[in-house]
Specification:
This protein is α+β, with helices and mostly antiparallel strands. It contains four helices and two strands; from the N terminus they run H-E-H-E-H-H.
Length: 71
Amino acid sequence: MCNPLGQASFLNRENTDLNIIIGLCIGHDLLFTEHSKAPVTTLVVKDRVLAHNPLGAIYSKYYQNKFSSEK
């Protein structure tokens, strides 16, 4: 279960220097960022196009072939 406020609270108690978001949906990443005391950067965001699995495109043969520079 996603709990961005709880995650931010936990990391605030741990005094992290930087929080990197991977896989939170848009609304939850905004809540997390708002409540985090440390700076936050987003590496990967969920999206509906890839069924909430954006990293699937990196590992999928379909997308590898689609974006490959070798034709």
